[in-house]
Structures are given as structure tokens and as C-alpha cells.
Amino acid sequence: MQVRKISEVPKEQAASPLFTGPEVARQPLAPESADFNVSVVSFGEGVRNKFHYHESDQILVVTEGRGVVATETERAEVAEGDVVFAPAGEKHWHGALPGETFAHITVTRKGAATTQTEE
């Protein structure tokens, strides 16, 4: 068993073409897991990821700030304490509202691909 404090897990830069800006960081919470990818992802003001989908289900637990999660047909504002479930294959995006920062814990199945569908 391991116990970690999120505040003590180092942040890694996570900027990539999947995001609308470079202010994105990741904190891997369970790198030893054979089953799950679990990280805190932090978005700078107004930064979001682009439309994408995962081969596995995705769970997001909002830990800080205010943001948006959206599919092709729905859009919801979320805040600390909200939990989002995105089923495998559902095109969606998530990120910070304009002028806000945002962070969530993300959980997906280890080895499941993420496919970006927006340029």
C-alpha cells in the first residue's frame, strides 16, 4: 500500500497538440498501477483539451476551479466536487472556463488509447 499527498506529487508539463494552450500540467498519482492511469491534470486560464475520445471509460473528479465538459450535443459547467463519467468512444472535451483555472483527477484504463478528433 502507498499513501501520497497530491500536494507532494511533482507536476510535469503536459502541453501537447491535444490542448488549446501550453499551460497544462500533470501529476501522476499511481504510476505503479497495472490497471489504471490516474493523474491530476491542471489547466491554465481558459485552456481546454480538444475534442477526443478514449478506448476506455473516463472518470473526472474536479478538484479545483471551474470548468466545462462538453460532448457534441451537451455542455455542462463543473466545479470542485463534481464527478464526470464519459463512456468509452464518446467524443468530448474538458477544460477551464475563460478567466478561470481548473484541475481534475482523471481515471482511464491503462493502455487505452486517446484519439484526438479536433485540429
Protein described:
This protein is mainly β and 119 residues long. It has a single domain, classed as Jelly Rolls, CATH 2.60.120. Helix content is 0%, strand content 48%. The protein contains no helices and ten strands. The chain has strands spanning 12-13, 24-28, 36-43, 52-54, 58-71, 75-79, 83-86, 92-96, 102-109, 114-116. Strands 1, 2, 3, 5, 6, 7, 8 and 9 form an eight-stranded antiparallel sheet that branches. A two-stranded antiparallel sheet has the order 4-10. Strand 2 and strand 3 form a beta hairpin. The chain is globular.
Please tally the β strands and state the result.
10
What can be said about the biggest beta sheet?
8 strands, antiparallel
| Radius of gyration computed on alpha carbons | 13 Å
Tally of individual domains: 1
CATH topology, anyone? Jelly Rolls
Structural class: mainly beta
Question: What best-fitting shape do the alpha-carbon axes yield?
Answer: globular
| CATH class category name | Mainly Beta
Question: Stretches where pLDDT falls below 50 for ≥5 residues?
Answer: none
Distance between termini? 41 Å
Mean pLDDT: 97
| Tally of separate helices | 0
Strand content: over 45%
Fraction of residues in helices?
under 10%
